[in-house]
From TrEMBL:
Example of a GO MF term: bis(5'-nucleosyl)-tetraphosphatase (symmetrical) activity
GO cellular component: cytoplasm
Superkingdom as given in the UniProt entry: Bacteria
SUPFAM superfamilies documented for this protein: Metallo-dependent phosphatases (SSF56300)
Name of protein: Serine/threonine protein phosphatase
Swiss-Prot/TrEMBL GO biological process terms: RNA decapping
Entries under Pfam families matching the protein: Metallophos (PF00149)
Domain Calcineurin-like phosphoesterase stretches: 5-196
Organism: Enterococcus villorum
InterPro entries the UniProt entry points to: Ap4A_hydrolase, Calcineurin-like_PHP, Metallo-depent_PP-like
Gene behind this protein: pphA
Amino acid sequence: MKPFIYAIGDVHGKYDLFEKLVKEYDPLLHQLVLIGDLNDRGSKTKECFLLGMGLVKETGAIYLRGNHEEYFLDFLKEPEDWYEPYLRNGGKETIESLLHTGATEEYSPTEIAMMIRSRYSELIDFLCERPLYYEWKNYIFVHAGVDLSKKDWHQTSPHDFIWIREAFHEGENQTGKTIVFGHTITPMLHGDMETTDLWKKDQKIGIDGGAVFGGSMHGVIFNEKGIVQDIEYQNNEGPWQGI
């Protein structure tokens, strides 16, 4: 077992920041954990997906399923039903990254899904296999959180592992473990819609600094005692956009 975990927060197509954080990764020392949501909203989903898949296959990284990976897979299964909600939640950028600019205007949802399935079958199979959480020593790494009302957090539903918000943030953590998560941006958790620092409360650590919205992306190194280093890269392409 490696002595450190290196966890990277939600990427959302921000390949430039993702690539910078990956350069800090030492596969000999770090177990890399990608917290999920590599796709949607940002312009370079294809590059982020392929880098994430490569890190898993080449270095043994852990890539957790986020709700946006789930959105993408749901769209591919039922394109006509999921097309509009998927586009509203950043799917247009993913479709155009995987195909080409203007693809959403040129083709029907069914045609788009067929082309993506045809061209990216390996990637789709890979995304379908992503785990919902990763345990390491006294830590739980998960995309959104766990159901703290359960006596055993392992009984959390697949939906809650990738979607839960307030019930987890406000619930009492009696798991005996520190829970590291993304999904909800830290400016929202801090309550000011400005602070992109890590959010820490009740042995819960939120690491999604809202990079795609003009915030930051975190790469956090842990040992068994706590945080060793927080590497934070700001999105300097524009001002904070809110949600």
